[in-house]
Batch of 3 targets.
Target 1
Amino acid sequence: MIWRNLIGMALFLLGCLVLTIIGLRWYTHHGQSLILPNYVGEKLVEARENAERASFELRIIDSTFVVGKEGGIILDQNPKAGSKVKQKRKIYLTVSKSQADEIPFRRLPILYGKSYARKQKELEQGYQIKSKVIGRKYDAGAPDHILEVIYRGRTIVDEKQRKEDVMIEKGGTLEMILSKSSGGSLTMPDLTCKMYTEVAFHLQTLNLMMGENHQDDTVEDQNEAYVWKQVPSAGARVYTGDTVQVFLTQVRPADCIDL
């Protein structure tokens, strides 16, 4: 009887020991750390399938539009890939949107009359908006400056207007017409009775070229000489880039009228 009791107690203690070992192994395995995969760059649908197999839960906390990227792509995750985490850990994601964000035109910089090269870079880097030159027309100002802005077939900027409430998509394209210094026509001004230096400056502002000047025997200082004749004559139709000839004399002509 005693031996039977001793054997029973030994078997009981052995069973308890086995169950304890099994329990410890299960508890250790259940709470062990796992290495978190990298979900960035994956499609959300595929990442969720992989996460479920690893007992992770994916949750979207933010979404943003990225030019050139389709919607539903994982852009960021927290915790980061490679982190040690437990099973059933929640992984927080930022994903890409398929619908482009829109920017009110009033938030964009002033474009009319500004250098195209400078504004093209500013729009691309600061707002993710592209620009495209679709034409040029004559303007008395500097060349390659913005005269008109067109969006989806509608003129939203010119010398008379700026439509502030138009919504511009990120990744969208603004079409622009730029200035050029040639091709415009104008009426030839009267240059007679003016000093050479004044005439040279005036022609420059009109985008006309100073051609050969003809001096009579009285001219000693060209800059202070007077124009007594010009070609083309005053009132003629000329074009920007045309050349103008002037005839100079040192003494102001007697038939000049004081204004």
Target 2
Amino acid sequence: MEKKFGLIGSTLSHSFSKSYFDEKFFREGLRDYHYELYPLKSVDDLNTLLAENPELEGLNVTVPYKEKVMKFLTDIDSEAKNIGAVNVIKIQNGKLKGFNTDSDAFYETIEKWFPKIENAHAIILGTGGSSKAVQQALKKLAVSFEVVSRKKGKAAHTYESLAANPNVISSAHLIINTTPLGMAPNTNDFPSIDYDLITPHHYIYDLIYNPARTLFLQKSEMRGAKIKNGLEMLQIQAEKAWAIWNN
């Protein structure tokens, strides 16, 4: 019996999810399982997608719909509700339940990679659903953080205020990009921070995995920082999504 899964978002040409799950289904002999990409111009197109694909049993959710999709859900897992963002939907008997595997996946990768530093402090670039997942993980790790937004009033800092207060960047131990800046196909983009403030004591994490080394990571590595992309996080969250769909 055919079972279908997929990814919804706005621009999906950058996604590794289809090839990841296609290979997984082939490797595990699941010949009737399929994974498709569903770019949506608006999150409101979700209802049409579900009506046209009644065999769908699960969806991954990527930017910019991790928060917007919540209004369509019949139920939301308590952790996802606490985070305020959903990146996995389980579809069963016409009902949609939302989960967040991003936060636990980020937690697992950062716990292994980022050293135990007394009074460690992080800067999170971005305020969307991925940022909320990262914030939840850092709370569990007892790493203090400040958030940077493009707009005033949405976070502790804007990119303009960072320029006026260089100590925010220079004194941070960990800087995490949760924005889509630099993601394929727009690989020439990067967060607007002063990269001359980056030093070998910085740990720089980009949730983007395509390209493997964004300009954000390249500029940081050139200044001696330790860098990490989002591929491992993607793989872990995908396996957690698979466990949810098959529970």
Target 3
Amino acid sequence: MLRRTEGIVLRTIPFGEADLIVSFLTPDSGLLKTFAKSPLKTKSRFGSSLEPLTHSRIAFWGKEDASLPRLTQSDIIHPFQSIRDTLSCFLKVSEIIELTIQFIPEREANKKAYSLLLHTLHDIENDCNESLEIIHYKIKFLELIGYAPMLDACGRCGKVGIDSQRDGYCFYVSWGCILCEACAKWMDSPVRISQGVVKLYSDLLTWDIAKIKRIRPSDMLLSELSDIMDMHIKHMITKTLNSRAFIRSLTGFRF
């Protein structure tokens, strides 16, 4: 059966001397892994359309339940070449690509996640110096798949409007949420977070990409929120994202 859709190349893995296993994020098949025959032997647009991040119209052949259908066509819609050509930009995007691969199930449609990634890539291509889009993607993506941290109320009793002066905003990584003073008894040591971070998180959770361009949070707030998201993700997947660890290893590298 021949099927057609569009997709964003998330990853390619060499298979033999000239073949590739290509992973796409698609709107109607979720994470789709395909087998591409001999793209490394040709200088045609077929091979260039399989570069990471490329947005293409694709066709693939195989039975309905085939684990690795054959990719028969890939026509470039937008290459996102400028992201790949800028190391700092590509490293930033690598984080959200790896996160997407970790959590999106194979062959399970998720049009919202696909749309979020596509719009984020276009936004980053227009302004790669803005770090807010990466944090926004992490928050919105985790919300879409049901794993966003809870910072607007106590994760146990549901108490809202926690008084930060009295109870404090205490994020418990193992719970993925903040807890009020009563519910936090006998818990492990929390991570203290500021009221500004809670407000910024709430805004990013509810606003779309176009709207977040209106705000200019401080570097301190962005760093604090980024650390919270990284701790939350690390707890869920029991490791630091490889791309994140690599970025942190580049001491002295400026983004």
